[in-house]
Every structure is written in C-alpha cells, then in structure tokens.
Write a structure and sequence with these properties.
5% strand; mainly alpha; disordered N terminus
Amino acid sequence: MASAAEQLAANLNFSAFAKATELHKRLLFTLGALIVYRLGTYIPIPGIDLAAFERAFSGQSQGILGMFNMFSGGAVERMAIFALNIMPYISASIIVQLMGSVYAPWEKLRKEGGEAGRKQLNQYTRYLTLILALVQSFSIAAGMQASGLALDPGPMFLISSVVTLTGGTLFLMWLGEQITARGVGNGTSLIIFAGIVAVLPRTIGNLLALAKEGQINAGVLLLIVLVLVAAIVFIVFMERSQRRLLVQYPKRQVGNRVMGGESSFMPLKVNTAGVIPPIFASSLLLMPTTAAAFLARDPSKVPEWLSWLPGVTAQLTHGQPIFMALYAAMIIFFCFLYTSLVFNPDETAENLRKYGGFLPGIRPGKRTAEYLDFVLTRITVIGAAYITIVCLLPEFLISNLGNSFYFGGTSILIVVTVTMDTVAQIQSHLLAHQYDGLIKKSKMRGARGR
C-alpha cells in the first residue's frame, strides 16, 4: 500500500500547481533575477575597444576563454560587467569545502559548529570570493591594457575595470543567494544554467549552417540529435542511480515498551563528485593552450627555450586524440580525489556507531569504514566512467565536425542536473502546499465538530 506522501505525490497536477500561489511568487522571483543577470551580460565594462577585443577573442575562443564564455552566456566575448560570472564564488566554495576536510580548525567548525559554524564557513567563502575576484579582474585588466585593448590605458582604467568586474561577481553571488532563499532551486547553479542555455541557439544555428552549406548531410545531423538525446537520457538515469546500504538500529527496552528496531537505507550516489572533475580537468588542459595562443600573436617575443610550446599545445585542443586521452585520465583522477574529500568513510562509520546503527553482517567501527570505502570505490569507478563517456562524446563530434560544434559534456551535465534539481524542488513545494491544504481542512473539520 502506498504511503500518504506517495499518494500526495501521485496527485500532483496542473490544478495543484495553479493553487500554489507561494510557488508562483518564487518562480516569478527566480525568472526576474535571471533576466537581470542576462541583461548584465550585455553591458560592457568602460574603457575598452570592443571591436579590437572581439578580434582578439575570436583567436582564443577554443581555449579556456571559450569554456568560460560558455558558462557566462557570452559575457566574456563581450567583456561585460558579469564577465567573471559566478566562477570565483564556485572556486571559493570548492576551496573552503576541501579545506574543511583537511584543515583542523575548519573541520571542527564543519563538524561541531552547527548552524553557527556553517555561517562562519559561508563568510569565509565570501571573503575568498572577493580575493579571487580581485586577482582575476586585475589580471584581465592588466592583460587588456598590455594588449592595447584599452581606449585610455592607465591607472584609472585598471581601477575601473577591477571595481566593475569584482562588483559584478559580488552582485551575482548575492543574487544567487537571493534565488536560493526566495526563489526555486540553487541560485548559483541556475545562474550558470542560464548562461549555458543562452548560447544554445548559436550552437543549433552553427549546426544548421553546416547542414545548409553541405558540410554535413541530413543523416549526420540526425545522428547528432540522437546522440544528444541518448546522452541526456543516460545522464538522467545515472544521476538518479544510487547504491542503497541497509542500516539497522537495535531494539531497546524503555520501561514496558520496546523501542527501536527500525531499518533505513544509506544512499550512495554513483556520481558523488558531480560536475567538478570535468571543470577542473578542462581548466587545467586549456590553460597552456590559451597561454600559447597569446604568445603566438607575436612570435618574436617567444623565448627560444619555449619554441616547442606551440607545437605541443596544438595537440591540446578540442577534438585532438592527445587532448581526449589526457582529458579522460584527469576526469577519472579528479573523480576519485574529490569523492575521497567529500565522503569520509571513517566519519560516516563513527556516526553510525554513535547513533546505534550498523550494517547487517558488518562489525561497527573499523570494519564498517573499510566496507564503506570498498563500496564507494566500486561505484566511483562506474561514476568516473559515466562522466568520462559523457564528456568525450562532444569531443568526438568536434573531431569530426570541427570547432563550429562547441558544446562540452560539462555543459550538458550542468544543464541536465540543474533541471532535475529544480524540478525536484518544484515538486517539493507542491507537496508542501498539499500538506498545508490537508492541515487546514482538518482544522476546519475539528472546529465544526466542536
């Protein structure tokens, strides 16, 4: 027999959605915030030669700048006030999260600090975001000035560019937090999602242009569509996949009553690392490519001992066999590294022992930690293989279609996972609305009975 929650979830429909006025407000707020973000990606920072910058960017669009441009929804190629996007905040969050696992004071805050500790770590994340944004914005401003892209180079150009780019990142950080608190879904993820979706029409237009020019035939175009649909289905299936470990709690005598004896499941996601491994891997691989491309603009400035760099980095571009092999190896490495940092088998086993839980057939303590590590390693192999396959599919398309098709596997992963998370939160709000309706009805009936 289905539970009450399952029955309510089965009854969710458009009628229930129409009555959920609180959800309507949240959705409108989220939509309005994303519109503000998209408008900001079209406002350029002051003092740059846009035509010269566009020409300079076109030569670097397949490097790390192209990847950041994809995440920012085209803000980088327009050098808009949101060119840094939310990436410094994401980098700061990852650094704080990793430090919370290896740095003792922060680990204590994370484990024992409770809500106050979580707020303190969030504050550290904001401070680190500011530092990263200042460093990155100054590097960008100095690079543009050195490349002759500034209309009026000098200290004022550097200061105005740093303030504008840093302010744009801090505003997006605040906007993401507001979406999380007052809207629907994770604000940071939705901002990246909006940027990626914004460049989808261009990607589709490039494919149609290739078909119109006869560079690809209708059969190849249909194959691309089928591969992308299959990839989306595969991502949904794998992101919902988990290994459930049975956890039992012993019975105990409390007076004349027997308490406990329940059982539950510990879900272990197949993809514990999320989208972090491909982001790290692609960033590290594309950095030398971008640097070499800047050096190649003026060969006379390339030192003799670096004469080999352009030839090597030419192989580290999208669609090249060496790039794909290194990309796959680094994704697998970061999958295991990040999973080991975010999931601690010893800590989980200790928490189970503390609350009286145990895995059937496994002794509490060290044996439980070893078993958790064994299971996690096995499913991480599957998760790493899944992410590698998804991220290499677009690379094979690029190798056959050229750089006109540029839509990375990381982008597909982000779009699908954020969509799934947002839909799940909408369903949660609808379910909560139905519960509220049932509670109000029960109170009214109770009042009438009196």
